[in-house]
Design goal:
23 helices, alpha/beta, 5-stranded antiparallel sheet, binds magnesium ion, Beta-Lactamase, binds ligand C2E, about 625 residues, Alpha-Beta Plaits, about 50% helix, 4 domains
């Protein structure tokens, strides 16, 4: 009723006029005309109209205020928000009903017990809640987020805004504010944080988290000089398992690997996933001897197989370690040097750990000389092949040789392949070197054949060479030129070529068609499974020398060798043992069914003229 006031006022004015008329008539003294009465009444109307308007206005405002209050009340009573006010002196709190949704205590319970809200606060947040309260008492507005326990024990997050109210003399007498239940927002923030700082597959901290933690640790070292170490772990041949068995198996393996690594370190150490199959660990307050112990523990953790989809898989870690402050003053440098050390561990046969070695000027100079010299090595005839016999163990006779490259450097002397092959692979120069090796070896084998020595010739092939599109064509060409029959040529490839299984399979099939034998060198270091190899056209598997070296002293290695021999028999592979140095190793191998071998016991790799003499004495007829 918008105009009730004004209508009412009209009636009132008419009523007053009637009273006036009646009075004039009763009094009878003054004579007033009806016209006078009408004019008087009309003159009164604007004022009365204004009066009515004011009444309507005030009525409207009260109604609106009532409505707003109801809306606000219903908002704070039915949502996860509530209003609160604290009488500072009386230590009394009054809260709106909305608190019941948030805390599951009633507003009355809070009003009756001033201590209740603090007693329900999460112990870890008590400090900041006290700070917030004192800030308000000091007269400053304050905002705070904390966790509290509902009546049923559930933990919820609360965001509280407060304002102090002052008396005339400027003392804080009241605190007023509003509080919201922000649990859902907090959970979302935690999720986002976990995406930003944790690896979703393994649940380990990620590189970003690691760098922040390491940065803080280094700052602590500035305050009290402590040693700090960074460990870089790369899984040997993880890619092979991932590519051959599928990514699900690869993922499962990574999870299990993270678990084993985490089990080997101290609780305070930060194990993070660096990416792919790489992990980094941060150690604070650690001596080198302890880092060494932990690295050994990690290696031990990998001596047993991983069970994935019912099958056993082996993978090993190559570990590099750098130490603060001597190997780097910031985390970037420490990671870089731990990574360098990890590569050294790979070069030194994988499945081991290495500390970062500061490369002094001499070492760097030598590397530069090797890299630069490779270009001239071929044209200057500085490369040569040595040959190591392959032996039929029961008879002790040679049935073939392996060609091993040597570099007679004009300044540095004889350089072993381990020093320059990886450099040649990095620079791509390995292709030219590899072509030369195959040509030289085939020509030599043909020469020996013409001399009555029918020797099988094995040549090492780098994965860079093997993956060349024209590799098979080159082999065909060399065989044609040297007139060596293909069954006399064997190629030794490493498990690293398996990372591109499809392409490798095609190349292997073409080689098989050509009649060339292929063997997998250094088997066991990458632990690709024999089952996988059995699906490929491979003729021979060479057990890596690290197994043979320890076969008599390490029961773990002994049992692995036995398993390899048994499996090779089942899968119809030939097996040859590398690095035989004594008779006891030969006995062990023969006892368990391995009849082919190679090693210093029989002969080291020798130049062609010398090996020729040995072959002439003890070559087995092929
Ligand atoms: P590999 O093919 O596994 O060769 C075996 C290595 O073990 C050779 O080292 C050999 O001298 C050594 N060896 C043989 N018998 C014994 C033993 O009883 N005890 C010990 N401790 N060692 C033994 P080498 O000649 O230094 O060659 C090292 C590696 O360099 C080779 O390992 C092969 O991977 C690579 N390599 C050698 N020649 C070539 C080549 O022409 N091309 C390519 N791509 N790589 C080559
Ligand atoms: Mg070899
Ligand atoms: Mg080998």
């Amino acid at each position: 009723m918008k105009y009730t006031g004004r209508i009412g006022v009209c009636f009132v004015s008419i009523f007053i006029t009637l009273i006036w008329i009646m009075y004039r008539q009763v009094a009878g003294t003054l004579v007033v005309t009806y016209a006078e009465i009408i004019v008087f009444t009309l003159m009164l109307q604007p004022f009365l109209w204004w009066l009515g308007k004011q009444y309507d206005k005030s009525k409207d405002t009260t109604k609106r205020q009532e409505l707003q209050q109801k809306e606000v009340e219903s908002l704070f009573n039915n949502t996860g928000a509530f209003l609160w006010t604290i009488d500072v002196k009386a230590e009394k709190v009054i809260v709106s009903k909305g608190i019941e949704n948030t805390f599951s205590f009633t507003a009355e319970e809070f009003e009756q017990n001033f201590e209740l809200w603090i007693s329900r606060t999460h112990p870890e947040d008590e400090g900041k809640v006290q700070e917030h309260y004192h800030r308000l008492l000091s007269g400053a507005p304050s905002k705070c987020e904390w966790r509290f326990f509902r009546k049923d024990g559930e933990i919820r997050w609360l965001e509280v805004f407060g304002n102090p109210i002052f008396d005339d003399s400027g003392h804080v007498i009241k605190l007023n504010g509003v509080a919201y239940d922000v649990t859902e927002r907090k959970q979302m923030e935690e999720k986002l944080e976990s995406f930003a700082y944790y690896d979703s597959l393994t649940g380990l901290p990620n590189r970003r988290y690691f760098k922040q933690a390491a940065g803080k640790a280094i700052e602590r070292c500035h305050e009290s000089p402590e040693k700090l170490a960074v460990m870089f772990i790369d899984l040997d041949r993880f890619k092979f398992i991932n590519d051959t068995m599928g990514h699900d198996v690869g993922d499962e393996l990574l999870k299990k690997v993270s678990h084993r690594i985490s089990q080997s370190v101290r609780e305070v150490d930060v194990v993070a996933r660096h990416g792919g199959d790489e992990f980094i660990i941060l150690f604070e307050e650690i001596e080198e001897s302890e880092a060494r112990d932990i690295a050994t523990r990690i290696l031990d953790q990998f001596s047993s197989p991983f069970l994935l989809e019912g099958a056993k898989f082996f993978t090993t870690p190559s570990i590099g370690i750098s130490v603060y402050p001597k190997d780097g003053k910031d985390i970037e440098m420490l990671i870089k040097h731990a990574d360098n050390a990890m590569y050294l561990a790979k070069e030194r046969g994988k499945n081991n750990f290495q500390f970062y070695i500061y490369e002094d000027k001499d070492v760097i100079d030598r590397k530069v000389k090797i890299e630069r010299g490779l270009n001239d090595a071929l044209t200057n005839d500085e490369l040569e092949l040595h040959y190591q016999p392959k032996i039929h163990l029961p008879s002790g006779k040679a049935y073939g040789v392996e060609a091993l490259i040597r570099w007679r450097h004009p300044e540095l002397g004889m350089i072993p392949p381990i020093e320059f092959i990886s450099i040649a692979e990095k620079t791509g120069f390995i292709k030219k070197i590899g072509d030369w090796v195959i040509q030289e070896a085939c020509t030599r084998a043909k020469l020996w054949q013409s001399d009555g020595l029918s020797v099988k010739m094995a040549v090492n092939v780098s994965s860079v060479q093997f993956e060349d599109d024209f590799f098979v064509d080159k082999i065909r060409q060399v065989l044609k030129e040297s007139e060596l029959s293909p069954e006399y040529l064997g190629l030794e490839i490493t498990e690293s070529v398996m990372h591109n299984l499809e392409r490798t399979t095609v190349t292997l099939q073409e080689l098989k068609k050509l009649g060339v034998k292929v063997s997998v060198d250094d088997f066991g270091t990458g632990y690709s499974s024999l089952n996988v190899l059995s699906r490929l056209p491979i003729d021979l598997v060479k057990i890596d020398q690290s197994f043979i070296r320890d076969v008599l002293t390490d029961p773990n290695k002994a049992s692995l060798v036995k398993t390899m021999i048994a499996m090779a028999e089942d899968l119809e592979f030939d097996l040859i043992a590398e690095g035989i140095e004594n008779e006891l190793q030969v006995n062990f191998l023969m006892e368990h069914g391995c009849h082919l071998g190679q090693g210093y016991l029989y002969s080291p790799p020798l130049p062609a003229v010398e090996i020729e003499k040995i072959l002439k004495q003890q070559l087995m007829p092929v």
